[in-house]
Write a structure and sequence with these properties.
Blueprint (H helix, E strand, L loop, with lengths): L7 E4 L7 E4 L1 H4 L2 H12 L9 E5 L2 H13 L2 E5 L9 E8 L2 E8 L8 E9 L3 H12 L3 E10 L14 E6 L1
Parallel strand pairs: 3-4, 3-7, 7-8, 8-9
Antiparallel strand pairs: 1-2, 5-6
The protein binds adenosine monophosphate.
């Protein structure tokens, strides 16, 4: 199945000059959703991953399904002010703006093997901030999995030394 055919690209969203990769058109298709999760999960089936982290918000959809498929738990990393209990924060630059991410301070046990999941690797700022949060809490970062990598933005350069996997490259 050609996943790229089901992804809609929207010019100038959320602002001028950004070509936004909209995965809602892929996920609404039953085979599209299944193939997406199969592709993202297969490399991690027997890697002893304890927990999958999904980055708000599309990372929740993909990360939750990947966690379930590989037999791992799920932990959300969220935008500031959304998590109910005590959290730690990491700020970062986005392709279109500046933001911060938070994780519950007791979410990860020291030494747990962690996989980070998100829909798009763009400049890498989001993923680098998530990686930092995992390490601050003492997690062992096994790798990061993305559905889409935007090669021209060189996000993987911000993740040097990490095990980065992306299903589709643009
Ligand atoms: P970055 O920190 O630049 O790697 O941006 C990654 C985050 O922004 C991901 O959570 C994506 O969901 C979102 N994102 C960035 N650029 C795009 C894009 N062109 N299309 C869709 N989502 C994007």
């Amino acid at each position: 199945m050609d996943l790229k055919q089901h992804i809609r690209s929207v010019p100038d969203f959320p602002k001028a000059g950004i070509l936004f990769y909209d995965i809602t058109t892929l996920l609404r298709d039953p085979m599209g959703f299944k193939t997406t999760i199969d592709s993202m999960s297969t490399p991690y089936l027997d890697q002893g991953i304890d927990v999958v982290i999904g980055i708000e918000s599309r990372g929740f959809i993909l990360g939750g399904a990947v966690a379930q498929r590989i037999g791992a738990g799920f932990i959300p990393i969220r935008k500031p002010g959304k998590l109910p209990a005590k959290a730690i924060k990491e700020s970062y630059d986005l392709e279109y703006g500046k933001d911060a991410l938070e994780i519950h301070e007791d979410a990860i046990e020291k030494g747990q093997r962690v996989l980070i999941v998100d829909d798009v690797l763009a400049t890498g700022g989001t993923a680098a901030a998530a990686s930092q949060l995992v390490k601050t809490l003492g997690g062992e970062l096994h790798g990061l999995a993305f559905l889409i990598e935007l090669l021209f933005l060189k996000g993987s350069a911000k993740l040097q030394g990490e095990n980065v996997y992306s299903v589709l490259k643009y």
